[in-house]
Design brief:
The complex is a heterodimer of chains A (about 80) and B (about 180). With about 80 residues, chain A is an alpha+beta fold. Chain A has a domain of about 50 residues. Chain A is built from three helices and three strands; from the N terminus they run H-H-E-E-H-E. Chain A has a three-stranded antiparallel sheet. Chain B is mainly beta. Chain B has a single domain, classed as Acid Proteases (Cathepsin D, subunit A, domain 1). Chain B is built from three helices and twelve strands; from the N terminus they run E-E-E-E-E-E-H-E-E-E-E-H-E-E-H. In chain B, strands 4-5-10-6-9-8 form a six-stranded mixed barrel. A three-stranded antiparallel sheet of chain B has the order 1-12-11, with no helix packed on it. Chain B starts with 8 loop residues before the first strand and ends in a 20-residue tail after the last helix. Classes of the chains: A alpha+beta (about 80), B mainly beta (about 180). At the A-B interface, helix 1, helix 2, helix 3 and strand 3 of A face strand 2, strand 3, strand 5 and helix 1 of B.
């Protein structure tokens, strides 16, 4: 992290949990993270299961992402 | 609906990875797809190099959208290969940043392309038509933030002369420039 970036972090106060630290723990899974704190609130092995979990638990203020397997290459040129 | 927070809306870049020991920073925004039902909110990759909004197939299912109904398909080159994408009209919600909750958003209509398979971290990709023609979007790799503002902000900031709005063939509200 550059000095300038560190300064920006300090100015903006408490930072949410980094997404990579969450994704690292659940490779290949689908994760719902809290949009404010970055903390994972639900993890499933398919997006359909995760969507069902979000509905059944009435989870709010979350965003869904897929945790890549660490052996996958970086994706470019998606669309 | 609750009152909208003032623009610009700032969204922090999010980490993608690790992949092969590498973590990259991506500009993403929280988006919900709206059909006959609501999808889960996902982090959508802001992709200025893409002309479309593209999404994972399970999002269509969750939102109650049948991509086959329109009969509109395109063969797109993605990741070095060609894939058939089925397009459908839908509404999208850009969720307000921070802890505003799920009741604070801006909603608009756009054409969304659904792929049959999806591997990226981000279940949706928002591109030029359907997102960049709806908002003024500024991405700063230096600040690791994406700023989203009303679409007309660009002209006020940069002094672009007013021109008539002319829909293009794909329904974009972008201007035709001579």
């Amino acid at each position: 992290m550059s000095k300038l970036r560190r300064r920006a972090v300090k100015q903006s106060g408490e930072q949410p949990r980094s997404l990579a630290s969450v994704l690292r723990e659940v490779p290949g899974c689908w994760v719902a993270v809290d949009r404010s704190t970055g903390e994972p609130v639900a993890v499933e092995d398919s997006p359909y299961k995760l969507a069902a979990t979000i509905r059944s638990r009435r989870l709010k203020n979350v965003a869904v992402v897929r945790a890549p397997d660490p052996t996958e290459p970086e994706l470019v040129g998606l669309g | 609906m609750a009152e909208l927070p003032p623009f610009p809306w700032l969204f922090a870049y999010q980490e993608d990875g690790p992949r092969l020991g590498s973590i990259v920073q991506r500009p993403v925004v929280p988006v919900t797809l709206v059909g006959s039902d609501l999808s889960s909110t996902v982090y959508a990759l802001v992709d200025s190099g893409c002309s479309h909004i593209l999404a994972a197939p399970w999002l269509a299912d969750e939102a109650g959208i049948d991509p086959k109904a329109s009969g509109r398909t395109l063969l797109l080159g993605i990741g070095g290969t060609s894939v058939t994408v089925e397009f459908a009209d839908a509404s999208l919600r850009l969720m307000a940043p921070g802890d505003a909750g799920d009741d604070v958003f801006v909603e608009w209509q756009a054409e969304v392309g659904f792929l049959k398979q999806w591997r990226p971290t981000w279940p949706m990709l928002v591109g030029q038509v359907g997102f960049f023609d709806q908002f003024t979007v500024t991405m700063s790799r230096f600040s690791l933030q994406t700023a989203v503002e009303p679409v007309e902000v660009f002209d006020g900031r940069f002094g672009v002369p007013a021109a008539p709005t002319v829909p293009d063939t794909r329904g974009s509200s972008s201007r035709r420039r001579s």
